[in-house]
Amino acid sequence: MTTNTGSQVRKPNMLDNFKPLLIDVAVPLGSYYVFKDALGMSTFAALAWSSVVPAVRTVWSLVTERKTNGLAGLILVVNVISLLLSLVSGDPRLMLAKDSGVSSTVAIGILVSVWLGKPMMTAGMKPFLIKGDAAKEAAWQRLASGAAAGSAAFRRKENAFSLVWGVVLFAECVARFVGAYTIPVDTMVWLGSVFMVGAMVIGFVVSGGLAVEPMERMLKAEVEAGRVDQQAVAVAA
Q1: Using CA atoms, how far apart are residues 80 and 140, in angstroms rounded to an integer?
Q2: How far is CA 206 from the centre of its chain?
Q3: What are phi and psi of 2, to 5 degrees?
Q4: pLDDT (tens digit per residue) in 101-155
Q5: Whole-model pTM over 0.85
Q6: Cβ atoms of 176 and 195 closer than 8 Å
Q7: How far apart are CA 130 and CA 132, in angstroms?
């Protein structure tokens, strides 16, 4: 694809679409395990050092773009909460309950992003729908910007996707907290993982049917509409 000046424009590839997830999520999480398991750092130190990238990303976005980087900001907040919770010790039930603090932070962050009209989970969903396809990328931009006929419906589904995950994760947090104080400790040790897996399954199923599949159909229709428009312009020319 070329511009009017003949300069080459690089098409977005799969890596471009996954870049926000890789930098804002994978790098902080991966570095935490490297610092803790490979380098033998304490939990507190590993959390602190793994917060450097999201902290820099958040400040950089504020300074250069005058806006917050949602994913980087959320990971930073989660790390700060985890740092504080890592200082908690003593009662085994309290130790189990503190795990819900991280889930609740993520859930609340996602729900607030929906309320602000900037659904945070879009960054995780978009790469799987676009798949590095330039036509789908252009269709997404038209739908998300309001330039397409189906933009309003598309934005509603985009918000619905994040809303589902926010609600599911918050419900998992509440269940984990209640279970920590009502279910035998030995049982809750493994049941907490069951709660998380169950929440993930529910999140994927509900968000898939409610948002992902309709958005995939909207993207396909918008790609076709874009091709028709291009053909009409070519004929007119």
Answers
A1: 34
A2: 16
A3: -125, 160
A4: 777 888 888 899 899 888 988 888 888 898 888 889 889 999 998 888 889 999 9
A5: no
A6: yes
A7: 5
161-194 tens-digit pLDDT: 999 999 998 999 899 889 988 998 888 878 887 8
Count CB atoms within 10 A of the CB of residue 40. 9
Between helix 151-182 and helix 134-145 the angle, nearest 10°, is: 90
Number of C-beta neighbours around residue 224 at 10 A? 12
Take residue 157 and report the two structure tokens written for it. 């589904």
Q: Which residues on adjacent β-strands are paired with residue 8?
A: 2
d(CA 152, CA 101): 34
Total residue length of the chain: 237
Q: Nearest to residue 81, comparing CAs of 113, 117, 107, 114?
A: 107
CA gap 21, 213 in Å, rounded? 21
C-alpha to C-alpha distance for 142 and 225, rounded to whole angstroms: 11
Identify which has the larger pLDDT, 65 or 84: 84
Q: Which of 95, 94, 62, 58 is nearest to 78 (CA)?
A: 58
**Residue found by looking up tokens 């400040």 in the block:** 59
